[in-house]
Design brief:
By secondary structure, this protein is an alpha+beta fold. The protein contains 5 helices and 5 strands, in the order βαβββααααβ. Residues 143-147 have low confidence and may be disordered.
Length: 147
Amino acid sequence: MVTVTYDDLLLAFEFVGSAPPMENSAYVSLDTGEVLWTSDLDAIDNEVPDDIEISDRYVAVPHKNDLDLGRNLALHFVAQVLPDDFERARSFFQHKGAYAQFKRLLESAGALERWYKFEEESVNSALRKWCSQNGIELHTSGDRSAP
């Protein structure tokens, strides 16, 4: 089983999720554990194999939407923490600028820090599950011997 540090995977995940799906990509080599990055917009200073998108030796790092960590996660949080504001929050996500409005709502309700913790825990859990499903072992930075 190949190993990847959690920090490397998290950076790749955030890079992939920082743009619309398919614009930024990252792949984990199942042979070395190396994380390779690509972008349709910016040149990235790493060489990637020509067959990276079709080879079974690389697994694409998922976009946050692939792991249900976008709008649905935000609405799940609101349903739990601010159920009276659920419909209002849901309406935010039908227009541009949804996350800014969502965060203003959370800030006004004193729930922004709770959101950040909830989001971090949800991302951590989803990435660990994804790794398990893809035969990737996660380690914390600087410690390749313990998960």
